[in-house]
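FYI - complex with LLP, inputs then prediction.
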Amino acid sequence: MFTIKDHLEISDDHLIIGGVDTVSLAEEFGTPLYITNESRVIGNFSAYRKAFPDADIYYAAKANGSFAILRMLAREGAGADVFSYGELYMALLAGIPREKILFNGNSKTDFELQKAVDIGVKVSVDSLDELHTLSNLAQGAGKKVEIAFRVNPDVSPKTHPKISTGLRSSKFGIPSEEVVSAYREASRLPGISPCGIHCHIGSQILETTSFTEATHKMMDLVEKVTDIGIDLKFVDMGSGLGIPYKKDEGPAPTPKDHANAIVPIFKEKTKALGISPKLILEPGRFIVADTTILLARVNTVKKAAKNFVGVDAGFNLLVRPTMYDSYHYAVVANKASSPAEETYTIVGPICETGDIFAKDRTLPCIEKGDIIALLDAGAYGFSMSSQYNGRPRCAEVLVKDGKADIIRTREDVQDLMGRQTLPARLM
Ligand code: LLP
């Protein structure tokens, strides 16, 4: 038995996750199949909590909203960053207390804002328009809603442009120079209690200087907002810590590095101002990305311009490589320690040229029936899946200490009908 990528092992040429042979899992549950290692999720969450002992960790539910994962994190004491009523509903159902939930979003519906008022969660307000709607709804319900403003700090996080969220040109947040007047406005409104400040600069960030820059900018705003008499109870710095999808990108910063980039600046400023807001972090990717693999079975091997390996999962199940050109290690799960012999490009069955999981990888000789494991598929994997090309979504399995439990059953073609109906003339 030896280890690849931390919690993944190889035994008898087979890839093992959480003490379970992935080849047997493929036989038992079929493919494609998402497999998550429970202990790894808990370990990653604990690492964050340890790095930020005085902060609250609000797990970003969008990264992986599977109920079993929300449930295990709820039991560990996580809060949640939710970006829709759907995520709020699931977080509450999983047992995350409403006091530890922040309702984020740049274009919330009135229905969603009403739900936030009725349930009593904090809201991160993204515009003055939203502020006024929320105040009216809260007033109508005879309540006051605790809010933070989502700040656009204009920081470049040196990541993929599609996942940079704090650039001046980004759709998220209120420009820094308008933030103080937004708090002034909020403090005049009857339904609003301004008590927090929030930013999130992007995702898959592999250097910490942008976290430091954002913290300086945010703490300057904390000072200005405090100066106008706002009593800030929390400062939410979002998250965005990247993971080492690819070894040659060098070592990725750890939660401790993330904390070193933020906490000293936060502490120094709050001490100088004589205030004691709670620090909040919203990690998603770091908690779940490396906990999960996607297994797919080889349907065909074809020698053409390249050596194409066609598997039974497509970008409907893992869209990241197609959408962000992201890299995921591919392992031949039933030949995991066999010598690498050939260069292959692993593709899905979707009717699009971009349906490519892995380009030009040197791997053991691949044949029909082999099983490919795509690693680090736990964040923005299943949560971004679809039924595109008439493909039912796959099952999910949770493994722990050598045992496997199904946490989501496989869809079948009846699920493609879903809630569709026909007008009478088409009956
Ligand atoms: N907080 C807010 C307000 C966010 O918008 C996000 C992610 C997070 C926290 C969590 O960030 P993380 O720790 O996971 O980096 N689908 C893309 C990533 C989109 C991220 C969206 N926002 C991907 O697959 O790379």
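The pocket of LLP is lined by residues 60, 62-63, 81, 104, 163, 165, 200, 203-204, 238-241, 282-286, 320, 324, 379-380 (CB under 6 Å). The chain has a mean pLDDT of 96.
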